[in-house]
Amino acid sequence: MDVTIKHASLEDIPLLSHILAASWRVAYRGMIPQDFLDSIEDERWVTPFTYRLTKGGMKADILYVQQAACGCVVYGPSQNKHYSGWGEICCLYLLPEYTRKGYGKQLLLFAMDQMKKENIHDFYLWALDENLSARKFYEKVGYTLTSDIYTVEMGGKLLTDYRYIYKNY
Question: CB-based contacts of 86: which residues, under 8 Å, 6+ apart?
């Protein structure tokens, strides 16, 4: 398979948003209320991505298989002062038909390598407590669960995210 990872430009923001929307509608089925998932439009993340990529210090990359965009990762220096000096993986998503093929690992390691070039060597991300497959994936690639949690309400349901860290000792 011809796999490439390309840095996303501002023109790619609608594509990034589409990848997230399509992924969320499938990946979070049974975890986030279905009516909320069904209401997600492809353009939902255009504004947040525009901010993160222009003013938020984040970068984004898109993974292509046979020249078809199938996944994305958004990352950069932590935006949270409590995690100053850390790198943050803000999001890592694949279109549903491209999951469980090793592409997520490629994207994650690529983002971590890019941050290492900027002298960031410790990383964190947040994973939904009910998303056991994602949590197992992160643990398999070397991330460790912490006691840090983040809660948010979506579609009338309170959701909990756990912070995972990857620390270079």
Answer: 77, 78, 120, 122, 123, 124, 165
Which of 1.10.10.650, 3.40.250.10, 3.40.50.300, 3.40.630.30 would CATH assign to domain 3-120? 3.40.630.30
Sheet holding 59-65, edge to edge: 3-7, 59-65, 68-77, 87-94, 123-128, 157-166, 144-154
Domain ranges of the chain: 3-120
Strands 68-77 and 59-65, how do they pair? antiparallel
Q: What count of Cα atoms within 13 Å lies in the side-chain half-sphere of residue 112?
A: 20
Closest residue by Cα to residue 13 from 40, 50, 41:
50
Query: Alpha helix (H) ranges present in the chain?
Result: 13-27, 34-38, 46-54, 103-116, 132-140
pLDDT tens string 92-147: 999 999 999 999 999 999 999 999 999 999 999 999 999 999 999 999 999 999 99
Q: Characterize the bridge pairing of strands 68-77 and 87-94.
A: antiparallel
Question: Helix or strand or coil: residue 116?
Answer: helix
Distance CA 129, CA 29 (A): 14
Q: Which two tokens stand for residue 146?
A: 């912490």
